[in-house]
UniProtKB/TrEMBL annotation:
Lineage: Bacteria, Pseudomonadati, Bacteroidota, Chitinophagia, Chitinophagales
Ranges for domain Protein FecR C-terminal: 171-238
GO MF terms held by the record: sigma factor antagonist activity
One Pfam family from the record: FecR_C
Source organism of this protein record: Dinghuibacter silviterrae
Stated name of the protein: Uncharacterized protein DUF4974
Length: 240
């Protein structure tokens, strides 16, 4: 068995065998009511899926906070919303309203934000006062990117295949080069990954993880390459 195929076996092992439980702070999901608002927060290792009071389905990536009130949310983080009726998502830089399914990446600590439309129709507008305050209508295959520091909002097109896979919840690697796999892990779990060592020595990766947690994926990766890793909140370090 060559090294690049090792991850299949280890991925199966990591998802089906007993392991040391992560710390409470890593798995903690909180739900708090404050007046008419509902505060929902995910843990730092896995996604959280919730059905909001208006029947909108929300999939929260690790480290995400949403505050729900009256058919809409305020978002700090990375989340997918599947809204059967008009629904509003507000971030620091954007206001988006519509029906359908779309993913929004908008961490308050970051300058840039983006939204990708999987299906439906969304109207996006800047959430702040700007000389250029025109709205954009987005449909499946459209995305919007915004950077408040330079007051720029752009509408682009993208391939919906990756978002469809992300929404389905199965993370797959098929002879994926190591650097590409690292980018997939960053996008999938909403984390940053720092690699220390010679990346050219790392082999391609093959494996499949259904509804996997970040610690499960990293444990399988460490056994397959091999490498060492550490996870601290939303930052991963890999030592080759």
């Amino acid at each position: 068995m060559t090294r690049r195929y090792l991850l299949i076996a280890f991925a199966f092992w990591s998802c089906h065998s007993a392991s040391a439980p992560p710390s409470l702070s890593d798995t903690l999901e909180t739900t708090t009511h404050r007046g008419d608002s509902l505060f929902l927060e995910s843990g730092s290792l896995a996604r959280r899926t919730v059905v909001l009071p208006d029947t909108t389905l929300a999939v929260l990536n690790p480290g995400t906070l949403v505050v729900y009130a009256r058919h809409g949310v305020r978002l700090d983080g990375d989340a997918f919303f599947d809204a059967p009726r008009p629904f509003t998502v507000r971030t620091r830089n954007l206001v988006m309203k519509g029906t359908g399914g779309w993913r929004v990446s908008a961490f308050a600590k970051d300058e840039g934000e983006s939204a990708e439309i999987l299906r439906g129709s969304i109207v996006a507008v800047k959430a702040y006062t700007s000389p250029d305050s025109e709205s954009d209508t987005l449909v499946s295959g459209n995305m919007v990117m915004i950077n408040r520091s330079i007051d720029l909002m752009e509408k682009e097109t993208y391939d919906t295949t990756e978002l469809s896979t992300w929404r389905a919840g199965t993370l797959e690697f098929r002879h994926t080069p190591f650097d590409s796999a690292v980018r997939r892990i960053e996008d999938w779990f909403g984390v940053t990954v720092e690699v220390r060592g010679d990346e050219t020595k790392a082999s391609a990766i093959t494996g499949s993880f259904a509804q996997a947690r970040l610690d499960e994926v990293m444990r399988a990766l460490a056994l397959a390459l091999p490498c060492k890793y550490s996870i601290k909140k939303y930052a991963v370090t890999i030592e080759l």
